[in-house]
Amino acid sequence: MDYQRDLRANESNQTACSTYPSTANRPDVRQQVQPHHQFHVYCQKQGQTIGGNPYWLLVNDYTAPGTGWIASYYIGYRANRLPDVPGC
Does the pTM of the predicted model rise above 0.70? Predict the structure, then answer.
């Protein structure tokens, strides 16, 4: 199972989520992000490195309510940091 494709949160400690994005700081999985899902990226922040990419994205997946974090590595963009997306 590919846990970083999960839209993740920390329901009991939201501060841990935004301080350092990682699978340990966001143990709660809100949903699986599937290929071709459309979502809005609010911002990006460095955290746990996944596949050589240290950035994580705070997103809202349009297929389900709520926001969560996903490793930027799984977005499929050629650079680690997404252009025109502010830092968190």
Answer: yes
